[in-house]
Structure formats: structure tokens, C-alpha cells
Amino acid sequence: MVRHARVDIIKPGDLNAEDVRLWQGFMAERDDLIGPYFDVRYVMAIGQSVPKAFVARLYEGDQVAGFFPFQRRGRTIQPLGAPLTDYHGIIGRRDLQIDFKALLKSLGAQHLVFQGWVGPMNPAARTTNHIRRIADLSHGYEAWFETQKAEHHKFFKNIGRCTRNVDKDFGGFEFSWEMATSAIIEWIIEQKRLQYKRSGLHDVFTCGWTLTLLKTLAGYQDQGFGLRVGVFRHEGALVAAEICLIKGDNLHFWFPAYAESYGRYSPGILLSMRIMQHVEVLGVRRVDFGCGGEQYKHVLTTPETACLEGVVSSVPSVGELILDSLVEALPMLKSQAKSVRLSLRRRFNIIQACEVSASGWLKAMGGTAKRALSRAANDQAA
């Protein structure tokens, strides 16, 4: 067992050739660090776009035993790229043991907030478990399709009906697998922002740096790594598109969007399936849908490994205390309190990650609190 004893803090762009070699070696010995978010190329590509971005080198004696990419938000740190980075953790030796409170002190922070933590975590951390949802293409797309269809016959019957309706009404959609251009990224983000507005969720793209991150990452193309986009068009017009992040034989579905006028045809689901059919031929064997709770993910995937959402602190968290007080003050049933608290904490964490200016933070927090109070009052009245 190895414990980290010393920490250096550097900018992502200052990672040197030896750091890259060690990073890749740590990933090779860890079968839990799967996918593009743990790749050093991801960290180096987005580091220039994320405000207050750093990488901690963790030492055991004079030897580097691990790395932790993070962003600083006051006395809170978050994994680098939050809230866009879906998975994160310590990239280090398998036997590396982290004293998280000591790590926080070394980084000049009091709280570590995370939403897709992979790997060991402090037992005292306040956490919620989630499960990564995976489409296994190791035996081919057709084998995946038949397996899921047998398990969820009604869903796939409805998808077949949607496909026939698309063929009848439009003669099918034209599919393409493309590089992520600024024009397509901006179209996807426009649809996402409309979705945020309809749902009342915080718009993660108002801050500016998150869109810059995507465009910067789109320009970073390396062998077997980078952004790709699956696209449906009809007569040249965009119907649906999904930004994907690819690393070797792993693909992560990241930002799906579709034109609302095509909604009744389920174009998002049809596109995801068409992308899987296409990339399986290119050698992709594992498609990660993330760990969100959308019902369609459970139908298209099987559960894989766990990840954690939560916070670990070296001192009592004022934010957590305020959140507890707010939830207690809301007019709702006690059985609702846990889910409401988790939803509010998630929203506050997203705002903290995105909004690095005081004015942006205050405006977003005020709007979220107002919507929470209004929704709770409406639920109570109902």
C-alpha cells in the first residue's frame, strides 16, 4: 500500500513527456479507468479552456504515484471540466491510498465536489451511488440488438414503428459520421439551450467557457481520440446530431440534440442506434451512455461499474448546511426530501462549476432557489 506524501500543482499544459508516460502507465494497470475522460489527451486538450484549471502530481517519496486534474472554485475544488466531464478520479497506481482531507489541505481547499467519481473515496464522504450504463458491442451490433430486443420487446417494437414512419414520411433520414465542426456544435448547443429553457435547468453554456471547451476539443484530433458527431439530415437540413467522445474502442455519448419538430419520430434514439451500428464496423466495442436516469438508457444498455456523486470536506460545509436548511423549509412531504436535496445540490454544483463571476453565480443561484420554492409550493397545492 502506498500513501501520497507530497503534492505539486501545475497547469495542464505543463505536463511533460515523463508525466504523460506515467499517466498512460497508471491507466494501463487500472481496469476501472475506462474511457476518454481519464485520457491525458483529454486533460491537455481542455485545460486551456477551463478557468482555474490545474493538475496535482501526487508523490510517494520522490516518485510520482498519481495525478489529479481539477478546477478551483473558491475553497471548493471539482474535477477538471465539471460539469461536462462525466467521469473522473485519481489517475494513479493501483495501490495508491489517498488521504482526502490531507489532499484538500495540500490543494488549499476545504471541499471536493464530484458527480461521476471512479475509484476509492473517503468513507466519510457524503455520497450517492450511480451505475454506468453500457452497450456491449463486443459480439457485434446485431448480437447487441437481438439481446436487448428480447429483453425489451415492446420498446423495440415502438422503435420499429418510428423507423417505418420516418421512411414513409421522409424517405428515411440521411446519416453521416463527421468531424465536430463549429457549425454543428453550435446547432447542437442551440437545441440544448432551448431544452434547458423549457425544463428550467441551468444553462451550462451561458458562461462561455464550456462552449469554448467543446470547440477546442473538436480541434484536438489524435490517433483514435477526439470528438465525432453522428448526424441525421433531411434534404440537407439537420434533424438530429450527437456529439461523441471516442478513445480507441470506447465511445461515449455526450451531447444529443434534435429539432423539436421531429420529436414524435424519436430521432435521438434512432440516431444513437444508427451511430452504434456504424462505429461497430470501425472497431468500437463499448458504448458508454453515462449514468443518468433516462429510461431509454436502461433499455439500450446493461449496468456496468459504479461511480459516486457527492462531497468530501475537511471542515463542515456551509453550503451543505444551507442546503439542509432550505430543504427543511420547503413545503413538501418528508419522503420527498432526499430526492429534492439531491436535485438542488446537483443544480448548485453545476452553477458553481460554470459561473466563475460573482454576478453570474448570484443570478443563477437566485433563479434556481426561486424555481425550487415555486415548484415545491405547486406540488404541495396539488
Automatic annotation (TrEMBL):
<feature type="domain" description="BioF2-like acetyltransferase">
    <location>
        <begin position="154"/>
        <end position="298"/>
    </location>
</feature>
<dbReference type="InterPro" id="IPR038740">
    <property type="entry name" value="BioF2-like_GNAT_dom"/>
</dbReference>
<dbReference type="InterPro" id="IPR016181">
    <property type="entry name" value="Acyl_CoA_acyltransferase"/>
</dbReference>
<dbReference type="Pfam" id="PF13480">
    <property type="entry name" value="Acetyltransf_6"/>
</dbReference>
<protein>
    <submittedName>
        <fullName>Acetyltransferase</fullName>
    </submittedName>
</protein>
